[in-house]
Design brief:
3 helices, Alpha-Beta Plaits, 114 residues, five-stranded antiparallel beta sheet, alpha+beta
């Protein structure tokens, strides 16, 4: 079943350019993944520190693999994200809300989640 992922990132003050560059590099690498059907990055016109990534994955396994790939891990470690706006589990893992196609239910995903 296809997955659509919407990720929101809030850059620290003065780190907008660094986050924009990190997102660009990550999105470019993600487009090469076999399980990535579509991925785009956006920047808010009302909040210049807000960035969004919308992606579509072949299935849950493709996204889970994506979350473990070096370019994704590198992006998450270097992204200038304001931790007060990020949602992290107690183990520090970033979780992303995933909405399965044509489903009213959602689940979180990230390294180690099932």
């Amino acid at each position: 079943m296809e997955l659509f992922v919407f990720a929101r990132f809030h850059a620290r003050e003065g780190q907008q350019a660094a986050l924009a560059q990190a997102i660009c590099e990550s999105v470019t690498a993600s487009r090469e993944e076999a399980g990535c059907l579509n991925i785009h990055a956006f920047r808010s016109v009302r909040g210049p520190r807000l960035f969004y990534i919308h992606s579509r994955w072949q299935d849950e396994a493709a996204f889970d693999l994506h979350a473990e790939l070096p370019h994704t891990v590198r992006f998450l470690s270097r992204a200038a994200v304001d931790r007060s706006c990020a949602r992290r589990d107690a183990d520090g893992a970033v979780r992303v809300l995933i909405l399965p196609r044509h489903s009213g239910t959602a689940r979180t995903a990230g390294p180690g989640s099932r």
